[in-house]
Specification:
The chain contains 3 helices and 8 strands; from the N terminus they run βαββββαβββα. The chain is extended, with a radius of gyration of 22 Å. It has one domain: 2,3-Dihydroxybiphenyl 1,2-Dioxygenase, domain 1, CATH 3.10.180.10. The strands form 2 sheets. It has a 4-stranded mixed sheet with strand order 1-4-3-2, with helices on one face. Strands 5-8-7-6 form a 4-stranded mixed sheet, with helices on one face. Helix 1 packs antiparallel against helix 2. Helices cover about 20% and strands about 30% of the residues. The chain has about 180 residues and is an alpha/beta fold.
Length: about 180
């Protein structure tokens, strides 16, 4: 696997997820990837991201939004390429990583690291790498051991509602 020499670009938009309903532990809300040919990118990303459960979710003139249902997180637009990027997509399981790699190579990507464990990162790091038609290093990765259950956020008890000041005052007056 060849590591990219540069992981920054001028057309990268990042935002921090902080709302409780959003993916626990996720940091990136969305980003914009600039490509040379938008229609070629549409076909390639449609095929390569399908095994991961991602698809074209929104489209506006000159820009495409890929992601999970109702949540485009990867926006793609045409323009001059600022520099190659490394994008790692969350996979639901190891089979999806394998299918991502096969689909991406079939859609025109170049292999940059076959599916497999990467113990140099950590014991359960399972990923696959490809170079897309615009030179970006795309990866699908899962960090859980096989058949490890997904962590669920603990259910929180609803906070007790505070009585309005007028009701508090009336309650105190009744106690006297």
């Amino acid at each position: 696997m060849n590591a990219p020499t540069s992981c920054h670009a001028t057309e990268l938009t990042l935002a921090v997820r902080s709302l409780p309903w959003q993916t626990r532990g996720a940091m990136i809300d969305h980003l914009i990837l600039t490509v040379r040919d938008l229609e070629r990118a549409r076909g390639f990303l449609t095929e390569a991201l399908a095994p991961l459960g991602y698809a074209l979710q929104m489209e506006f003139p000159g820009i495409l939004g890929f992601g999970a249902p109702r949540k485009p997180a990867l926006w793609v637009k045409a323009g001059p390429i600022p520099s190659a990027m490394h994008l790692a997509f969350i996979a639901p399981d190891r089979t999806a990583v394998d299918r991502f790699h096969a689909a991406a190579v079939a859609a025109g990507a170049m292999d940059n690291g076959p599916p497999g464990l990467r113990p140099e990162y950590h014991a359960n790091y399972y990923g696959a790498f490809v170079i897309d038609p615009d030179g970006n290093n795309l990866e699908a990765v899962i960090h859980r051991r096989p058949a490890a259950p997904l962590r669920r956020a603990k259910a929180r008890k609803p906070a007790a509602r505070k009585a309005a000041p007028a009701r508090k005052k009336a309650a105190r007056a009744r106690k006297r």
